[in-house]
User: What shape does this take?
Amino acid sequence: MPRSLRAGDAGDMPSQTMHTHAPPGPRPVLSGADLAKDYGRTTALHHASLVVDRGESVAVMGPSGSGKSTLLYCLSGVVKPDGGEVLFSGVRVDELSDARRADLRRSDFGFVFQFPGLLPELSAAENVALPLMLDGVGRRDAVARARELFPTLGLEGLERRRPGELSGGEAQRVGIARALVLDPAVVFADEPTGSLDTHTGDEVMSLLVSTVRDRRSALVLVTHDERVAERCDRIVRVVDGRTLTEPKEVR
Assistant: This one.
């Protein structure tokens, strides 16, 4: 059961966030089955399916406009699909209210984007600590917990620096730390190396995949770069809104 939801409660958003990850088991942590999404007259997804196990990294590839980012947005609860179903730890994400999906994204999912979007007035450690503070942790404790991630991601010594004082690769690693600080069950990454040079992108991807795997989170990564995709456990290709590679059976 997602830690943001009470067991058996499909009603309004709970007054207090639960922090109980579902234990690892044979069921996938995340699945999307027969997903469809239209934007006006444009079909973005059509019978797309994907299953992700805990600890697994999956790269989603496809040409521009293929629907790969829409698939990520549907799986992560950013948008509701027009058809099909999304299951996270046994909960129908597509049936939740907007408020419940927002709570789920905040507490159980982590997000890494092409540009990290760090707040310029905060230090690197404070940026990483933001999700903790939004979750009710006091500032001092939140920053202390955030700092624990810095050595893992090669950021030791950069805790007090402002975003303007960081290189592109350093800033992206701070963004990864922010995505991981609440120990999410699933990390969604949309072109996380798109703004980086090849060498820096390789370093960032290596850290992202290894750190997510070590923490037993799942990773769903959208990319157009074969080099990036090959670092994941599995590649799923999306063309014209359909997943071309055979997905695992949705359980």
